Amino acid sequence: MDERITLNHGSGGHKTSELIADIFKKNLDNEYFTADDAAVMPAPEGRIVMSTDGFIVSPWEFPGGNIGKLSVCGTVNDIACMGARPLYLTCSYVIEEGFAVADLVRIAEAMGETARKAGVKIVAGDTKVAGKGQVDGLFITTAGVGVIENDVSLSGSYAKPGDSIIVTGDVGRHGCAILLARDEYGIEADVTSDCAPLADAALALIKAVPETHVIRDSTRGGVGTVLYEICDQSNVGIEIVSDSVPVDPAVKGVTGLLGLEPLYLACEGRFVVIVPSEFEEKAMEILRSVESTKDSVVIGKVVSDHQGKVVMKTPVGGMTFLPPPGKELLPRIC
Amino acid sequence: MNEAAKILQEYKGPKLRIMEVCGTHTHEIFKLGIRGLLSPDIELISGPGCPVCVTAADYIDEACYLAREKNCIITTFGDLVKVPGQKTSVSKERADGASVNIVYSPQDAALMAEKNPDREVVFLSVGFETTTPSDVLAVKYAMDKGIKNFSILTANKTMPKAYEAMASATDCYLYPGHVHAITGTKDCYDMLAKGTSGVIAGFTGPELLTALAVCVKKSQEGEPFLVNCYPRVVKDEGSPAAIKLVDEFMEPCDALWRGIGDIPMSGVKLRSKYSEFDARVKFDIPDMREEYKTPCRCGDVLQGKIKSYECPLFGKACTPDHPVGACMVSDEGACSAYYMYGGLI
Amino acid sequence: MCVGLSAKVISVKGDVALVDSSGAKREVSAALLEDLEPGEFVMVHAGAAIARITDDDVSETEDLAKEFLS
Fold this sequence. Notes:
The complex is a heterotrimer of chains A (334), B (345) and C (70).
Chain A: H1 14-28, E1 47-55, E2 61-62, E3 65-66, H2 67-80, E4 85-96, H3 101-118, E5 121-130, E6 138-148, E7 164-167, H4 173-182, E8 187-188, H5 199-208, E9 214-218, H6 222-234, E10 237-241, H7 249-258, E11 270-275, H8 280-289, E12 297-303, E13 310-313, E14 319-321
Parallel strand pairs in A: 4-5, 10-13
Antiparallel strand pairs in A: 1-6, 2-3, 4-6, 7-11, 7-12, 9-11, 10-12, 13-14
Helix pairs in contact in A: 1-3, 2-3, 2-5, 5-8
Chain B: H1 2-10, E1 16-20, H2 23-31, E2 42-46, H3 57-68, E3 73-76, H4 90-95, E4 100-102, H5 106-115, E5 121-127, H6 132-145, E6 150-157, H7 159-166, E7 172-176, H8 177-183, H9 186-193, E8 197-201, H10 205-221, E9 226-228, H11 240-249, E10 250-257, E11 261-270, H12 279-282, H13 298-302, H14 326-329, H15 334-341
Parallel strand pairs in B: 1-2, 1-7, 3-4, 3-5, 5-6, 7-8, 8-9
Antiparallel strand pairs in B: 6-11, 10-11
Chain C: E1 5-13, E2 16-21, E3 24-29, E4 41-45, E5 48-53, H1 57-69
């Protein structure tokens, strides 16, 4: 095998076949993984769920994972948020000419390992090679299919006043890990991305608490963005207790130095879960029994006041608004 | 702390206007929801704000000129990126291909110059007294290392003249702790001698509540007062090393404050013997200052003379996405907060 | 102005100090403070240690409350 990816690897000829056999098939293989134009699988019983997500992350490797792992977690978690069991994924790679083959192997390995862990099969893929400078390293797009095996129905529009809001672990760790990996601000800290597949937790939750209203995957916009989305979709307000939002101490240190809000840093292994308050205890018990969501915490409740806004109870007993999302995260000096 | 909160909640008496003059105070007061804890007889006024918010439009235009016309690498604190100039902003220039690098510290900007010897690197030097020593340290580093491709575009400001200019709008200043960690307490005592009260405050919830409660208590005694409520950080003498360093490199100059206007001798710039590090001199930047005429009434909002919505630009020409005045630039600015939350906070 | 964060000095080398703020480490300028020692607490702003501090805001506010608020 060559040391670096060349345009030949994307030409569809024998170099492409070699790449697929030695890297992708080797790491991702299963009974449905296809060399044909499309994969054929048996139709599952129940409603089908489908989602897609593109991944660009710089650097492509970071403490706690790489883009291969991330691209599986992202789509698996999106599917799981609908209460579905993720079944199949496809992946499409766009690789920059000159990318190291050894690195591609690491990415494919992480992808295979994460897929097995998440119980999902990668059944088809595509590889394109782009000229030097046309992409930054590599981009991966995954699409996935899952099945809803019961009559559960989840949506960001189902939040009701009185519901309890749970976040399934500390916030902002992925965003912070990436920020540190870029090494733009000369800060060092021991922060690992929270990147993880969460389907098992979602399935356990809806089995035990089918009354669950919302499961939402908190990704690039962080938990803050998810809360605002839910306010909008459900025409409600949200009230959280700022001290109850779990933040890793090192993340606190980094965001403190740079003046950033951890609620707006990306997570890649955290759900925001909304359940009727009478099921809060049961939901917490289930989530805490699953490894990937064992640090779940109730952070607040859905309210009928101040529709469309996220309000925070502050440590000194005051009330404030979480500034709305959508702004580029920039370190502050003042 | 509970005692402090109780004092603030239960105060009844003549209207007490307390002005905070620090962006981070404004930010923390907002983030902690402190306004909602105060008696209706206490009004917190967000004063001039932060050095970024008060950076004038023509300064941004100068920075964009350096990026566009002189192909300089612009290095800047993150919060300055979105601040609008008269026609453009640093973030718009970046989108158009200008080299813009956000740094955590001015010295990182000098390091960038060292690593890119064939490009001119300019640091956008904004800040009050707290930040200016760091800016000077970057210049000193470049000087000591013989780095020729580094310069700073100064818009550094100093507080004492602003304190004087805004004194009539407040009964008591909440002085910015980190400014006075550098400058000491002398400026505050000078204000006291002119009859203006104040407390020097820290930034945590308990520190802010305590400082505000001290304000309320002392005000009831009737005499002008000054209390250093942040002695773990602020010493009377400040930081003599920082004062000496800044004085060696910088000299006072007039400065234009966004939304407020000119305040004589309220800024500092590099002394002429260091002009090789002064981007304005080095690149012979043309005067960008257009006649400063704007219907923006930031100054009146800052001084509590009008409410945000009484400004003719509010919500029309001036919004959080397209701010005109200082009070709309940051999320916690008086106008921005009013726009987003409708006066609820 | 002036996002400041208290941090503990880990080591000092000439004019540069390595500081730690709840696990976030960074090199900052120590040029503004004389004879900085490892173990001391400083206020950090824009890459410079601007003041020697005590890390105890609790007893400070308690003292103030005792003196002025009771």
